[in-house]
Give the backbone structure.
Amino acid sequence: MSEPGLSPKYDRALHVLNRCAFGPRPSDLERVRAMGAEAYIKEQLNPASIPIPRELVDRVAGYRTLHLSPIALFVEYQRPVMEARRSAKASGRGRADADTGAAVAGAAKDARVRARIVMREAVEARLVRALEGPRQLQEVMTAFWFNHFNVFAGKGLDNIWTGSFEESAIRPHTMGRFRTLLGATAHHPAMLFYLDNW
C-alpha cells in the first residue's frame, strides 16, 4: 500500500500509528488500513468521539488517588507524615525512652511509604491508558505536555500532587487551546510548589 513517489515498502498506516500513537497494537494496522490514514487522524483529533472500553474505564476508576483533589491528597497522605515528624521531634525533646522515639520515627517512615501509592497509581494509570486506550493521540499529547510542563515528583509535596497535576491540569486540555493548558498548569499546586511559589 504505497503512495506515488514513495518506496513500495512505505506503509502509511504504520507511519501514522508511529506518529499519532505509541506504535501499532494488535489489529491497529488492519483497522487504520481499512479506514484510511486520514480518517484515523480525523478521529484521533476528536478524542471525545472515541468510546473508551468499559474495562479500561473501570480499571482507571480503580486508581482511587488519581481522582482526589490536591487538598484531599494532602490531608490523607501528607498530614500523617507531618504529624509523625512532629511527634518524633516532641518525643526527642522530652525524656522519652529510645523505644518511644524509634516507634515514632518508624511511624513517620510508614506514613511516607504509604504515600508512595499516589505516585504508583499515577504511573500505572498513564501506562494502562497508553497501552490499552483507543485515544492514542490524546495519550501521546498528554505525555508530551506532561514532559514539557514538568514537575519533579521527588520534591516535597509534588510526590503526592504529580498524578493530580497530570489528571486535572494537563489531560483535559491536551487537545484544546494552549492558553487554557498553560493557565491550568501554572495554577496547579504541584507547579506552584515545584517553582517555589507556594
User: Anything to note?
Assistant: Residues 83 and 108 are 8 Å apart (CA to CA). The mean pLDDT is 88. The radius of gyration is 22 Å.
